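Hi R.,

As promised on Friday, here is the backbone we talked about, encoded as structure tokens. Could you run it through your design pipeline when you get a chance and send me back a sequence?
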């Protein structure tokens, strides 16, 4: 690695920091598409994420050549441009890229824009470290401020549409349980068959901090669970479709089927992919690759919000959410000022909730 001399920047005497010139660690690929593949395999990108990264970097590929990326039906069958990876160092590119990125960003929400920019910068940074390119053409593109999301709860009609999706029994059961129990996704995914008490519609979970607590579900989950469990008597409740790979912890392998516990990451991916059209009802099915679906956490948030809207009492909301503070319930209440809604409820709420938990723990 060599260092360029320090040079002046403008008439004001400001100095430019010395820039390191990286000696390539390996022969650079000739084409951008090859550089993308080398990044996905060499940077340790998980296989489950590689598809999303590849789609995003392909979109950037059009813009790196100064062309707007096709959207919607026009994207189907469109062949990405072929260009040398060295073209990324074109000094005129940052200005052109900033204009194209700004125009495309107007079609997406701030979170999506920032996520795609992050993917591009991760890849570019990796290529720079390999010594294949010197410049970052995204330098003039700013992240968009994401306003606080105060609409995390799904509408009732969106929940109904979710139940109508044609998905596997595992997903139907998992999503129903998350909504009906208002439990956290990682808690539900850690459930074992032996933790369930189907006759009581409840299950024993390990909550935050390692505490053992109970979640309760309703008729929808109760109907689906026997079909999901089949004749199993132990092991993880939610399983992968394939046999567990060697080295998987014993606690995460079903002793009867040999399949592994479904991971939070994979469960989140499946939910997000299946809800893209629900989250973007005006989008074309041919152009949903660049869109975001819902997150599993929104099922818990929706359940508690709907409970609050239906007039569920503060003590029951506190017990159902398993929050330690009444103030934590404010996020589920709209309309009146939340502190006013819960004013004076704390002592009574704690007493009733504690009694309710003690009762259900018997």
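Update: got your reply. Pasting your designed sequence below so it's all in one thread:
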């Amino acid at each position: 690695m060599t260092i360029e001399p320090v040079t002046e920047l403008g008439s004001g005497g400001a100095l430019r920091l010395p820039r390191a010139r990286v000696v390539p660690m390996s022969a650079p690929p000739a084409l951008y598409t090859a550089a993308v593949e080398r990044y996905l395999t060499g940077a340790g990108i998980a296989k489950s994420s590689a598809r999303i990264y590849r789609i995003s970097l392909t979109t950037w590929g059009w813009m790196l050549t100064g062309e707007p990326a096709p959207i919607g039906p026009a994207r189907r069958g469109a062949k990405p441009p072929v260009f040398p990876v060295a073209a990324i160092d074109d000094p005129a590119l940052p200005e052109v890229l900033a204009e194209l990125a700004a125009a495309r960003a107007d079609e997406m929400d701030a979170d999506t824009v920032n996520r795609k920019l992050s993917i591009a910068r991760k890849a570019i940074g990796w290529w720079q470290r390999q010594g294949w390119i010197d410049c970052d053409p995204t330098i003039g593109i700013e992240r968009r401020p994401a306003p606080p999301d105060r609409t995390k709860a799904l509408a009732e009609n969106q929940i109904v549409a979710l139940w109508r999706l044609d998905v596997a029994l595992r997903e139907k059961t998992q999503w129903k349980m998350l909504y009906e129990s208002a439990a956290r996704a990682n808690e539900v995914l850690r459930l074992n068959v032996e933790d369930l008490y189907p006759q009581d519609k409840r299950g024993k979970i390990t909550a935050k901090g390692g505490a053992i607590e109970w979640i309760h579900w309703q008729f929808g989950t109760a109907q689906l669970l026997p079909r999901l469990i089949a004749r199993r008597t132990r092991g993880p409740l939610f399983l992968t479709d394939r046999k567990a790979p060697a080295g998987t912890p014993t606690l995460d392998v079903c002793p009867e089927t040999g399949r592994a516990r479904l991971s939070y990451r994979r469960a989140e991916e499946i939910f997000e992919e299946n809800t893209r059209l629900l989250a973007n009802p005006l989008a074309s099915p041919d152009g949903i690759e660049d869109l975001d679906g819902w997150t599993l956490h929104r099922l818990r948030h929706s359940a508690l919000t709907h409970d609050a809207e239906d007039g569920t009492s503060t003590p029951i909301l506190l017990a159902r959410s398993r929050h330690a503070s009444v103030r934590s319930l404010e996020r589920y209440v709209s309309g009146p000022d939340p502190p006013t809604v819960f004013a004076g409820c704390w002592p009574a709420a704690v007493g009733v909730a504690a009694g309710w938990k003690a009762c259900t723990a018997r």
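One thing I noticed while checking it: The beta strands are 2-3, 8-9, 14-15, 20-21, 196-197, 202-206, 212-216, 239-243, 259-261.

Thanks again,
M.
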